[in-house]
Amino acid sequence: MVLLLKACTNDFFKFCVVGISDSFTKLISDHESISRFSYPIRIDQMLDYELLEIFKKAENRVSHYFEIEDIARDYIVKLAGGFPYFVHLIGKESFYLAHERGQRKINIETVQSVFKRIAEGRLPNLYETLYLETIDYSGNKEVLLVLFAEELNTVISTKDIYKTAKELGINSPANIVNSLVKNGNTKPVLKKLSNGRYSFIDPIFKVYVRIRGLKNK
């Protein structure tokens, strides 16, 4: 890869490598030679007002044929966790649903119906596939995954999670968590930082799991 970048890069043409990671070093761990020719640009999660701008642009694109109520916008932004992926996904599906219903005003009920589709696994997308592969028809694994996702801190302690899991009848939560770190032939979703401390490999998937867990609310 580094040879390709060197050969094709000049003053007018640059490559942008995009990925999700805790650090630049981890992001390029499989291609360390790139680091000598790279300049990292950190992009933080979007602020609420930036996410709200997405709705304004979408409404302008359709000449305000569809409009979304403020309370519905705020609900989407609240659950999006700073990621535009969910604003685009939920916003787009809300527009589609409003069209199906013959509505031009997208209200909170419309948006909640879309979230319900996600929570019930009825909205096909990239993260739904990962979710199903991860839980692998295991109810206990699904419960633990949701418990981890509901922790708002990036670094997640297992102390309270294991306590809650045992109260729900899961006798060996640590063994299940190990399977989420080393997930057989499927993609691992958690990484162990130290004893009793974990984090999600993909923070967008963490938010998706949190939304998926709404079916139990």
Spatial ordering of strands, largest sheet: 3-5-4
| Poorly predicted runs of 5 or more residues | none
Helix- and strand-based class? mainly alpha
Percentage of residues in strands: 5-15%
In N-to-C order, the SSE pattern is HHHEHHEHHHEHHEEH
Helix content: 40-55%
Largest sheet: 3 strands, antiparallel
Rounded radius of gyration (Å): 20 Å
Counting DSSP H or I runs of 4 or more residues, the number of helices is: 11
Number of strand elements: 5
Assembly classification: single chain
Output the keywords.
flat; 217 residues; mainly alpha; two-stranded parallel ribbon
Which helices and strands occur, and which strands form pairs?
Blueprint: H1 2-8, H2 24-27, H3 48-61, E1 67-68, H4 70-80, H5 84-100, E2 105-106, H6 108-119, H7 126-135, H8 139-149, E3 156-157, H9 159-167, H10 173-181, E4 190-194, E5 197-200, H11 203-212
Parallel strand pairs: 1-2
Antiparallel strand pairs: 3-5, 4-5
Helix pairs in contact: 3-4, 4-5, 4-6, 5-6, 8-9, 8-10, 8-11
Describe the structure.
With 217 residues, the protein is mainly α. The protein has eleven helices and five strands. It has helices at residues 2-8, 24-27, 48-61, 70-80, 84-100, 108-119, 126-135, 139-149, 159-167, 173-181, 203-212, and strands spanning 67-68, 105-106, 156-157, 190-194, 197-200. The strands form two sheets. Strands 3-5-4 form a three-stranded antiparallel sheet. A two-stranded parallel ribbon has the order 1-2. β4 and β5 form a beta hairpin. The longest helix has 17 residues, at 84-100. The protein is flat, with a radius of gyration of 20 Å. It starts with a helix and ends in a 5-residue tail after the last helix. The model has no long low-confidence stretch (mean pLDDT 89).
